[in-house]
Design goal:
Elements lengths: L3 E3 L10 E3 L4 H9 L13 H15 L9 H8 L3 H21 L3 H4 L2 H21 L3 H14 L3 H11 L5 H30 L1 H22 L11 H14 L1 H29 L7 H15 L2 H11 L1 H21 L4 H27 L6 H51 L2
Antiparallel strand pairs: 1-2
Length: 422
């Protein structure tokens, strides 16, 4: 059955429907199976949840297309491991900067307008990456991609705003499933496409996907009323005041940031490990590891539902423990591709369960400030990711793959300490 979205955001007043292009059934097949079958809330139909999930996935995917291609990019530009490692590092730093500087605007202005502007900026940034003649241009494009891909973090609080309180964890988990599938499956797509058509084709196809996404969002998203009249400077200053005022926000930001160090250290060095002797495997294999992580990401709605029923604190402890156990097994066990694939599935499950549960906590702290609360949490997470990329590259160069896994296990252990310490 074809998928439809309302042609105007005023759902109750305009019954006319607008059919999507032929790609819609594919999107529906990809995302619908992982979404919980919760009753639709006023202003939040299942189709709108699907749009939010798909939008989050396609936009955040831009952060990760380059990771399976790092070996090929290093050869193309004649760059060292440290130089080519700046590509994912700058992307994640751009994302963290965008979260802190741009995401709070969702409380001040119509979030729909901000999302559409960011979609256009992401489209142009991906096009610049596809045409990059020199490495410094690719560095610039990577930072801009990170900055504009923060539209994913405008879609998640949009879902939390539209969802009923009793279903907020499950709804956020559904949208996060789309986001997490975008993170993990982007590696599969980019690895396979780069192997066949080259790395420029990956960025070109990504730009086309964002063009389609912008078209869908323009027709499917409702308008959002601002929740504050603070000026931009006051809005940014309020991030610090929120952090000082809410202890649970501080705990969530620190713990998720530490888990992000482990997550990013693994994914930013995996392609280099596989590309190096004795394995000498190409970008297709590196991208295929995203399938293992994607299987773990599909459990995000279940984690959200469990957080609704039993409390997010328990889910976070379980998730952090899974991350620690996975990296400890890789650090102490044999260097086996099967072990790495299994560990990727388990630690991605733990990471995503912790993230969804932390978001469930944070969104309930002060509802009128959801965009700013989300900015603090996700900003801390992506600072952790950029640190993980940098530290992972250093560990890989000095101590090899076991050094990367030991670093990740240590970060996960610290996250557990943060959650257990009162």
């Amino acid at each position: 059955m074809p998928l439809y979205f309302y042609a105007k955001p005023e759902f109750e007043k305009l019954p006319a429907l607008l059919p999507l292009p032929p790609i819609a059934p594919l999107m529906e097949q990809t995302f619908t199976s992982s979404l919980p079958q919760a009753p639709a809330a006023p202003g939040l139909s299942r189709r709108l949840v699907l749009l939010l999930a798909a939008g989050a996935g396609f936009s955040v995917a831009g952060l990760y297309y380059a990771q399976p291609m790092l070996g090929s990019l290093a050869e193309q530009f004649g760059a060292s491991s440290a130089e080519i490692g700046l590509v994912p590092t700058l992307t994640q730093l751009g994302y963290a900067a965008g979260i802190l500087l741009l995401a709070p605007l969702g409380d001040r202005f119509d979030r729909r307008r901000i999302i559409l502007i960011k979609a256009l900026a992401l489209l142009l940034s991906l096009a610049l990456a596809a045409l990059a003649p020199q490495l410094w241009v690719l560095w610039l494009a990577s930072a801009l991609i990170g900055l504009s891909a923060t539209l994913a973090q405008d879609l998640v609080p949009a879902a939390a705003t539209l969802a009923p309180e009793a279903e907020r964890g499950k709804t956020v988990g559904s949208v996060m499933t789309g986001l997490l599938l975008g993170i993990l499956l982007s590696r599969v797509v980019s690895g396979a496409l780069a192997q066949q058509l080259g790395w420029r084709a990956v960025f070109a196809v990504a730009a086309l996907s964002i063009a389609l996404l912008a078209w869908l969002l323009r027709r499917g998203l409702p308008h959002f009323a601002p929740t504050t009249q603070l000026g931009y400077g006051e809005l940014l200053a309020s991030l610090w005041s929120l952090l000082k005022r809410h202890r649970e926000l501080r705990r969530a930001a620190l713990a998720q940031g530490l888990l992000a160090v482990a997550f990013s250290a693994f994914w930013s060095t995996l392609a280099l490990m596989l590309h190096s002797p004795p394995l000498n495997l190409g970008s297709t294999v590196a991208g295929a590891f995203g399938l293992a992580g994607a299987a773990g990401a599909l459990a995000a709605p279940l984690a959200g539902a469990m957080a609704d029923r039993r409390g997010p604190g328990r889910v976070i402890l379980l998730g952090a423990s899974l991350v620690l156990a996975s990296f400890a097994a890789m650090a102490l066990g044999p260097q086996s591709l099967w072990l790495v694939a299994l560990a990727a599935l388990v630690f991605d499950l733990g990471f995503q369960a912790s993230l969804v549960s932390h978001q469930s906590i944070v969104y309930g702290i002060e509802p009128p400030a959801r965009s700013r609360l989300n900015a603090v949490l996700i900003g801390a997470m992506f600072m952790g990711m950029s640190s993980g990329s940098w530290l992972g590259g250093l560990a890989m160069g000095e101590y090899g793959w076991r050094g990367v896994c030991t670093l990740a296990a240590g970060a996960a252990a610290l996250a557990l300490v943060v959650r257990l310490r009162r």
